[in-house]
Structure formats: structure tokens, C-alpha cells
Write a structure and sequence with these properties.
Blueprint (H helix, E strand, L loop, with lengths): L8 H13 L4 E3 L15 H10 L8 E6 L20 H15 L4 E6 L25 H13 L3 E7 L3 H14 L4 E7 L6 H11 L7 E5 L17 H5 L1 H4 L10 H16 L13 H6 L8 E2 L6 H8 L6 H15 L9
Parallel strand pairs: 1-2, 2-3, 3-4, 4-5, 5-6, 6-7
Keywords: Oxidoreductase
GO molecular function: oxidoreductase activity
Pfam families: Aldo_ket_red
Amino acid sequence: MTWGNQNTEKEAHEQLSYAFDNGINILDTAEVYPVPIKNETQGNTDRIINPWLKTRARDKVIIATKVAGFSDRETSLRDKGKGTRVDASNIKESVEKNLKRLGTDYIDLLQIHWPDRYVPLFGEYMYNPAKWRDSIPFAEQLQALSDVIKEGKVRYLGVSNETSFGVMKFVHIAKTFGLPKIVSIQNSYSLLVRCPFEVNLVEVCDPRNCNIGLLAYSPLAGGVLSGKYLNMDSQEAKRGRLGLFPGYMDRYLKSLASEAVSKYVDLAHRHGLTPSQHKALSSPEWRKRCWCNPRGHKSWGGAAVRHDREEGWSASTLPSDVLRVKSQLAVQRCGFNTQRGGR
């Protein structure tokens, strides 16, 4: 997400090599990257990945990318200079351009970056019926995605920033019409953003139901859980995304979020951990409770510097008392209790 904006090509290649040399086998990109989205930088992340990808055996790298959802503002993505939709022409053009930028002839996982229909997105948590709009039918979207699979340009399908309603619609239509089933959902999940998934999508994605793997993005909440933004006047904060781009991901800087981050950082330090090592997704205990197929579960980190990535990957099992306190903090923030009792 930062390559081509905050990072040089050399830094990006060092980060990729370090990741894949230490057991990572999948990279996630998107046609709109890097973010924040700008016409002059759009697609740069893919262009930076391209030469690095040539140094690796293609079958050893799983490439996940995304086609943009509905937008009447992102007019630079398509040749006709119009906004984006999840229809056949947009999907085909997106796939062709993705393949060219990346320098490959197939995409392992193609995801719809955000829905074509209205849903609350990127800091908007309540559904507003007044914002409902006409959208591309689910069956039409899935048929268009099926076509690029038949052409050999895409292997698997996924969704992102999706809801239970959307997941169920895609799964039902795939089963009804014999179309490819989505295999993954990439949604925000972190110590600051647990409720939307744990309260809602957990049942849908359970292996005994739809069996949809979670690709958790922003496990450090845009870097906020590292603790570096607790003092926005510090040099570290000013160099970070939230400091460089005022207003970007500012939902993670609200008063309640800052209060929770401060407590998580203190908890990590008391146990000799960095906040990055302390993140929820590094815990095997968390994975035991996970609703996803363990073989399909991943988490995406967008750390701009290699040091942050190394810390996250070096994390191991968390002490039981740390997990207990983290659960208590989650209850305070989400307003629900994970234990039995009460109504």
C-alpha cells in the first residue's frame, strides 16, 4: 500500500525478499495502490512488484490483487475516463491492466476491493438506507468474474470490505448457477476493530457454513497499534502515513481509540514485547478460536519500514494473562462480553 508513494523501489524489494525468505508466500496488491489514492501514483505498487517478481519462481508466489468497486471519483483507472463499476467491461480492463503492470499471465486471487452497491465503508459503521443506490446484480458480477477464470487469467475469487449479506448472496448465486465460489474475504481486523467480524461475519465464514477464509487487513490499525501515533508531534509520527496524509485513517486516532492503544502499549511493555509483536493475529490462541479455515487464514500488514515487519513476524505465543487483559479491553470497547451469562 505504501510502495510507490512512501517507499522507494529498493526498500520495497528488500521488504519483499525478507518476507519471502522467512516463509511468507503471498503478496496482496490492488489496482488503486498506493494509498491514499492519487492519479499520479496509481498503479505504482504493481510496477514496483514487477521486477522483483521476475527474480522468483512464479509458482512460489501467490499474487492477490483487487478490482475497484463502485466509484464515480476514480476516473483515472479506466480508459474511457469514467468511474468504476463491478461489471464485465470494468473487470476485464482491470485484469488486463493488472497483468501488464505485474508482468505475469495470471492472478492467483482476484478480489472485489469494495462492493458495487452501497455499504458503510472506511470508518462509516452504520448502514444508512438513504444512501441505497442501484448496483450491478450479484449474478452479473459473478458471471463476469467466472469469464476471466475460464480465460485462465484468474484462479480464485474473493471479496473485500464486504458484509454478511454480500457474502451470502455470492455464495448462494454460485451454488444456484454453478459459478465459482468466493474463497476469501479481506476485511479490517485488529485489536481496535474486532466487533464487525466477531459479532457479524463469524457465523457466515465458519468452515461448517460458507467456509470463507479471512484475509485480515490493517492488523495494526494503520500503524496506530504500534504506539507511534500516541504523540503526533514526534518525528516517528510525522514520518508515518497518518502524519504525512492528514485525515487518512483518522478513525483510528479518535479519543476512545487512543485510550485503548495506550493501554495495549502499556500491556505489551510490561511483558517485554513491542506493540507490533503484541497484535492479536500473532497469537496461536486467537487462531484456535478463529472461525476461518486455518489453511486459508492470513493477515496483511502494511508496515512502511522493514523493522516493523520483522517485529510482527517474530511474535510468538502470548501469555495467558495478556490474552485475558486484551479480552477485557475488547469488551470495554465493543460493548459485548465473550463469556456466558446475562442478556
